[in-house]
Design goal:
This is ATP-binding cassette domain-containing protein. The protein folds into two domains: about 1-265, ABC transporter involved in vitamin B12 uptake, BtuC (Orthogonal Bundle); about 360-605, P-loop containing nucleotide triphosphate hydrolases (Rossmann fold), CATH 3.40.50. It has a six-stranded mixed sheet with strand order 8-9-10-5-11-12, sandwiched between helices. Strands 4-3-6-7 form a four-stranded antiparallel sheet, covered by helices on one side. Strands 1-2 form a two-stranded antiparallel sheet. The radius of gyration is 29 Å and the shape is elongated. It has helices at about 1-15, 20-35, 40-65, 75-95, 100-125, 130-150, 185-205, 210-220, 220-225, 230-255, 265-280, 285-300, 310-325, 330-340, 360-370, 415-425, 445-450, 470-480, 485-500, 515-525, 545-560, 570-575, 595, 600-605, and strands at about 150-155, 155-160, 380-385, 390-400, 405-410, 430-435, 440, 455, 530-535, 560-565, 580-585, 585-590. It contains 24 helices and twelve strands. By secondary structure, it is an alpha/beta fold. Bound molecules: adenosine-5'-triphosphate (ATP). Adenosine-5'-triphosphate binds near residues 392, 415 and 417. Adenosine-5'-triphosphate binds next to strand 4 and helix 16.
Length: about 625
């Protein structure tokens, strides 16, 4: 009996993990089964819902997964529709098959226009609101342009407001004069193409590419601190989404046999996020479910796919959704299902205190040196950073080398964190230079400095809370190894070193603050850094953990250059390293901790006394 229950739970878990794969198989099966009895008119209307679902999928990739609400998806959709149709109008009479021309053309033009817009958005490092507005402006621009654009391209005549007509329907045979498919056949064809596109997206987003996109959504800075050039990933996923929208547009044109500038209208642009929200943001399948739910509802209420009742229905549905189903239909079903499964996060409570075996750590560090080369020196010359009237880094000239750990101390606001941030490129300095090894890194972006060997742990633990513990380590290790197997090996060793094997499948957000600090340190170690910057790593740790951390830092310093910012003077003492006191962004005093503790001037700045304040 117990075994049966376990087996059923195991099966349910497997199904839950692979539900995304089951969806296109079921959808295709249902479409094929329905083909024998479905009313041709319903098949015709339902085809448009599938196409809108595909358009929604393109948005879900960039919004639900990438974190950017693009109102440009209908622009890529319209462009794909226009260009795909121009090619189909000219080529189909000669060769038959329309989709073989229009789908690739739609996808290529959709991808190319998205790549151009994405490059502007991401390389200019626009904020989310700016990016949404720019994408919307792009759509409006096309709407306005196509209103007055009258041009003939071969047999295709674009008539401005009158649009582009005579677009051939869906023809699959390769011969002149081949017949268009009937509505039911078109429905099945569109479902199969959409299921294939969906499967490709599901597969891609399940792999390392999708993980990196998820990481960028959760914490772009941390993703860059792992050494990923996030802008390339963002442009790539935006282009992929553009390709899917373009392909959907080409299918829409073949379905409607007609296109006009209203495809770029405000109403069209705003419908897409609604499909995604209703279905479930970030679920991929939700876009189709949302399009079917809204399309089906308005169809049965007699309004047609975008008919008179639609606005009212959408308004009510959206209000109800915001009130009761925040994760949309698919998200809600997923959540209910997940509740029936064993709670993987329960293991977070069983995690004992971290106790690092020095032998294991040494082994990891020796191997890291073999793979990534010897430790590097970090030096700054007259480094200067200003925020308005505040100068947190004021012409700091310092060099750090392997051997003993370096500690940066100083009162609150002395500029310790700002100095580390200027070293790694989170803050771009106004003057001075940063040199990593022999390379001037002053103007290098964060990810390049990380690739040069700089590893950083910021003050707050930066972990990807929605990912599991082993996924966090693996994505960090992959940034360096670029090989999934090698990354899995590295992350497994770090996981074992931290004693987190039982917590491998726990969501990182379920860990305690101290455990998150260790996970963050583990992620930095996965990068095999040659210079390590740790900003208040002991914050939130117990005394026992702080002792472990001290031993770890001392071991690290024998293999790499280590700089630690700390307030905990007892911790700094145990590091037995070189200490630099910063005050008002400048080096105020240096030495070992015993000397500095006895130095009246240092006490003065800490206690806010006398002339040194
Ligand atoms: N992004 C920023 N914009 C404006 N001012 C900033 C910024 N970052 C830091 N500062 C200012 O620079 C000064 C130094 O801050 P910083 O965090 O580097 O000090 P700190 O020595 O690390 O302090 P703490 O020990 O409290 O963390 C502060 O006055 C702070 O307000």
């Amino acid at each position: 009996m117990t075994r049966d229950v376990n087996r059923a739970t195991g099966l349910s878990e497997k199904l839950y993990e692979n539900a995304g794969l089951v969806f296109p198989v079921l959808a295709t099966g249902a479409a094929l089964a329905a083909a024998s009895f479905i009313d041709p008119y319903l098949a015709y209307v339902a085809t448009s819902w599938v196409i809108f679902g595909l358009l929604g999928l393109s948005l879900d990739l960039v919004w639900g997964r990438g974190g950017l609400l693009s109102l440009g998806q209908t622009a890529f959709y319209g462009l794909g529709g226009y260009f795909g149709s121009i090619l189909a109008i000219n080529m189909a009479p000669l060769t038959g098959n329309t989709l073989v021309w229009s789908l690739p053309a739609g996808a290529v033009f959709g991808a190319a226009s998205a790549a151009a817009l994405g490059a502007i958005i991401f390389f200019a490092r626009m904020g989310p609101l700016q990016a949404t507005i720019l994408s919307y402006t792009f759509t409006l621009l096309l709407w306005s342009l196509t209103q007055s654009l009258k041009i003939s391209v071969g047999q295709a005549e674009i008539g401005g407001d009158n649009g582009l007509s005579n677009i051939p329907g869906v023809v699959l045979a390769f011969r002149r004069g081949a017949e268009s498919l009937d509505p039911v056949e078109v429905f099945v064809t569109v479902v199969i193409v959409s299921a294939a596109v969906y499967f490709l997206c599901w597969w891609l987003m399940r792999g390392t590419f999708g993980r990196v996109i998820d990481c960028i959504r959760i914490d772009p800075q941390k993703t860059e601190l792992l050494g990923y050039d996030i802008r390339k990933y963002q442009v790539a996923s935006f282009s992929l989404a553009g390709a899917i929208a373009g392909l959907a547009g080409a299918m829409f044109a073949a379905w409607a046999n007609y296109l006009n500038p209203s495809i770029f209208s405000v109403q069209e642009a705003l419908l897409v996020p609604i499909y995604v929200l209703v279905g479930g943001l970030g679920t991929l399948a939700g876009a189709f479910v949302g399009a079917f739910a809204i399309g089906g509802l308005s169809y049965y209420l007699g309004g047609g796919a975008v008919g008179g009742q639609t606005t009212l229905i959408l308004g009510i549905v959206l209000i109800l959704l915001v009130l009761f189903l925040k994760n949309g239909l698919v998200g809600a079903i997923g959540e209910l299902w997940r509740r029936t499964l064993p709670d993987a996060n329960a293991a977070a409570r069983d995690a004992g205190a971290v106790s690092i075996d020095p032998g294991v750590l040494e082994g990891i560090l020796v191997e890291a040196a073999e793979q990534a080369g010897p430790a590097k020196r970090l030096a700054t010359v007259d480094l200067y950073k200003q925020f308005g009237g505040v100068i947190p880094v004021n012409k700091v000239t310092r060099a750090f080398e392997p051997g003993r750990p370096y500690s940066l101390i100083g009162p609150n606001g002395a500029g310790k964190s700002s100095y580390l941030k200027a070293c790694v490129g989170i803050y771009m300095p106004e003057a001075g230079s940063v040199v990593v090894g022999d390379v001037d890194a002053t103007n290098a972006p964060i990810f390049e400095r990380v690739r040069q060997g700089v590893g950083v742990k910021n003050q707050k633990p930066q972990i990807f809370g929605e990912l599991t513990v082993d996924e966090n380590l693996a994505i960090a290790a992959f940034a360096r190894t670029r090989d999934r197997q090698a990354a899995a090996d590295v992350s497994r060793r770090i996981l074992a070193m931290l004693g987190f094997e039982q917590q491998a499948k726990v969501q990182a957000s379920a860990l305690s603050h101290g455990q998150q600090q260790w996970l963050d340190i583990g992620m930095v170690l996965c990068l095999a850094p040659r210079v390590i910057l740790l900003d208040e790593p002991a914050a939130g740790m117990t005394n026992e953990e702080t002792r472990e951390l001290s031993a770890l830092v001392r071991t690290l310093a024998r293999h790499t250059t280590v700089i630690v910012v700390e307030h905990d003077m007892e911790f700094v003492r145990t590091l037995e390293g070189h200490v630099t006191v910063l005050h008002h962004g400048q080096v105020f005093a240096e030495g070992d901790i015993a000397e500095l503790r006895a130095d009246d001037r240092v006490l003065d700045i800490y206690l806010g006394r006398r002339e040194h304040v």
